[in-house]
């Protein structure tokens, strides 16, 4: 009995040392308080999961400290909603307008830029609406509406959906009618539906590259209007695991992790999926 | 958190009922004869076929959805029919979900009839067709239960209709896929409304079938 207790004590001590070394090497200043621990809920968008980025980052973060992460991958809208209700401890989202409202309402303790990727307009290679020659995303959407070519919308209040609706607004079009197909689903299924229906759709580049069996190709890309910035937000709500949330926020914006993000996907897709935005120490 | 528009609720109810009732009807046309044959006939491979049907009763609906979607995709063997993301594609998936249940329960019902019944009917001069009709009438209570089970399985399913139908608003969205979508958005009130309406639909269909079944039962006792 005593021997077993000793073994447990040694194990705990070893774990503490490892955790302290782990957080020390990432350069965070947790020395004054106890190492954050416990379960942390990360609410994030489907794009970070579908590209496989989370599978790389989350185990590395768990390994570096004593926080265990439960990931909920949903649309940005729902992720932010989970944060507002205190059902998530930290958010990794890309819906700038909704994020600013969230911060303005006092739900967040901090909001830091993490990375960005970009949106692309994908569609059938035959390009019936000639969007590749339209000269930009706004005239491209106008060309789609004018020719009534099928367009698949996620219609799920996600960050991508918010971006799409904003672009339609900029194009001066209220899309409706049988050519405007609302799927109510995530990016992966919507890309598959668009491919099968020979429809156009707006996607983040990462999910488009990571989704298999698509006949669509990128027809419009580049430009400020198609940038897709991700922020990490520490939720301020009673009962949330602020310690782990802060640790995650510091960790993901730290220099080594930013380098990991910059190189993520280059071997599998031949190009980087995300571009780091944090100026980590 | 807003309640869904009444027009949308009715649209979803109508599409859900149309898809699942037609799928159940087709599954019944396949399942009742197939189950009767499996229950009555003795042939080589009969036991293997019966095992397959019973396995089919436990067929995960998402697997049905996956296979039907792969077959109906543009690149799939039946891609040229353009049935992917259509109501007809969803009916096909639900037929495959409901048919094994109806077949399996029918088979069990026919086998549960007294062994001497076919011989007695033959002795009374029944020909083959009359024999089968009479046996099905004898087994009508469990047969209706089979149809109810098939409908219940089809109407409550979400994985296959999402994969094959695509949950496209105004075209292939049904009550179950609408519930999943709204929960995904954190919008629970419309999801609860759809859930209640789906229950009411299942209740209405089963009430009709049960009244037929129980009338049959009363008639059999008198």
Query: Could you say which structural class the secondary elements and strand pairing of chain B correspond to?
Result: mainly alpha
User: Which stretches of chain B are low in confidence, meaning pLDDT under 50 for 5 or more residues running?
Assistant: none
Quick one: how many beta strands of chain A?
10
* CATH architecture descriptor of chain B: Orthogonal Bundle
CATH architectural grouping of the largest domain in chain A: 3-Layer(aba) Sandwich
Q: What is the fold-level CATH name, i.e. the topology of the largest domain in chain A?
A: D-Maltodextrin-Binding Protein, domain 2
Total individual domains of chain A: 2
Would you kindly provide a written description of the structure presented here, covering whatever features stand out?
The complex is a heterodimer of chains A (281) and B (222). Chain A is of the alpha/beta class. Chain A folds into two domains: 2-116 and 229-276, D-Maltodextrin-Binding Protein, domain 2 (3-Layer(aba) Sandwich); 118-226, Periplasmic binding protein-like II (D-Maltodextrin-Binding Protein, domain 2), CATH 3.40.190.10. Chain A has helices at 2-25, 46-50, 53-64, 76-84, 96-104, 137-147, 159-170, 187-196, 205-210, 242-252, 255-263, 266-269; strands at residues 37-45, 66-74, 90-93, 108-123, 151-153, 180-182, 200-204, 217-220, 227-235, 275-276. In chain A, strands 1, 2, 3, 4, 5, 6, 7, 8, 9 and 10 form a ten-stranded mixed β-sheet that branches. In chain A, 48% of the residues are buried. Chain B has 222 residues and is mostly helical. Chain B has a single domain (13-172), classed as MetI-like fold. Chain B is built from ten helices and no strands. Chain B has helices at residues 6-40, 46-56, 61-72, 87-111, 117-123, 128-138, 140-155, 159-165, 175-184, 188-221. In chain B, helix 3 (61-72) runs parallel beside helix 8 and helix 5 crosses helix 6. The N and C termini of chain B lie far apart (54 Å). The mean pLDDT of chain B is 91.
């Amino acid at each position: 009995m005593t021997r077993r207790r000793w073994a447990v004590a040694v194990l705990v001590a070893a774990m503490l040392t490892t955790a302290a070394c782990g957080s020390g090497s990432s350069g965070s200043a947790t020395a004054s308080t106890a190492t954050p621990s416990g379960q942390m809920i990360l609410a994030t968008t489907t794009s970070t999961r579908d590209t496989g980025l989370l599978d790389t980052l989350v185990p590395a973060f768990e390994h570096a400290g004593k926080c265990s992460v439960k990931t909920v991958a949903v649309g940005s809208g729902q992720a932010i909603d989970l944060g507002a209700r205190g059902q998530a401890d930290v958010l990794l989202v890309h819906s700038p307008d909704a994020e600013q409202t969230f911060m303005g309402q006092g739900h967040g303790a901090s909001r830091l830029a993490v990375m960005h990727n970009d949106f692309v307009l994908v569609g059938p290679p035959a390009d019936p609406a000639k969007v590749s020659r339209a000269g930009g995303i706004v005239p491209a959407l106008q060309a789609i509406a004018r020719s009534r070519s099928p367009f698949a919308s996620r219609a799920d209040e996600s960050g991508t959906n918010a971006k799409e609706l904003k672009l339609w607004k900029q194009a001066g079009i209220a899309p409706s009618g049988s050519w405007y197909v609302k799927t109510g689903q995530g990016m992966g299924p919507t890309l598959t539906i668009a491919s099968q229906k020979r429809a156009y759709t707006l996607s983040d580049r990462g999910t488009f590259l990571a989704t298999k069996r698509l006949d669509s190709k990128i027809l419009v890309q580049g430009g400020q209007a198609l940038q897709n910035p991700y922020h990490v937000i520490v939720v301020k709500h009673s009962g949330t695991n602020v310690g782990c949330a802060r640790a995650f926020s510091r960790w993901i914006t730290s220099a080594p992790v930013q380098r990991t993000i910059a190189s993520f996907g280059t071997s599998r897709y031949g190009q980087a999926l995300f571009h780091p935005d944090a100026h980590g120490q | 958190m807003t309640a869904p528009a009444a027009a949308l609720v009715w649209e979803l109810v109508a599409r859900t009922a149309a898809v699942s009732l037609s799928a159940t009807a087709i599954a019944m046309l396949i399942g009742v004869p197939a189950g009767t044959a499996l229950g009555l006939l003795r042939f080589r491979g009969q036991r293997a076929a019966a095992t397959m049907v019973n396995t089919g009763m436990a067929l995960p609906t998402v697997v049905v959805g996956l296979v039907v979607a792969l077959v109906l995709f543009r690149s799939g063997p039946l891609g040229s029919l353009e049935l992917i993301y259509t109501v007809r594609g969803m009916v096909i998936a639900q037929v495959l979900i409901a048919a094994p249940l109806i077949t399996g329960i029918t088979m069990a019902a026919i086998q549960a009839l007294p062994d001497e019944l076919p011989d007695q009917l033959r002795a009374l001069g029944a020909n083959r067709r009359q024999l089968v009709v009479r046996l099905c009438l004898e087994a009508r209570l469990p047969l209706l239960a089979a149809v109810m089970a098939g409908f219940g399985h089809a109407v409550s399913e979400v994985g296959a209709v999402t994969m094959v139908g695509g949950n496209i608003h105004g075209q292939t969205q049904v009550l179950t896929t609408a519930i999943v979508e709204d929960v995904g958005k954190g919008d629970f009130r419309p999801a609860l409304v759809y859930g209640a309406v789906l229950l009411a639909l299942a209740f209405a269909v089963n009430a009709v079938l049960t009244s037929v079944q129980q009338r049959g039962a009363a008639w059999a006792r008198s």
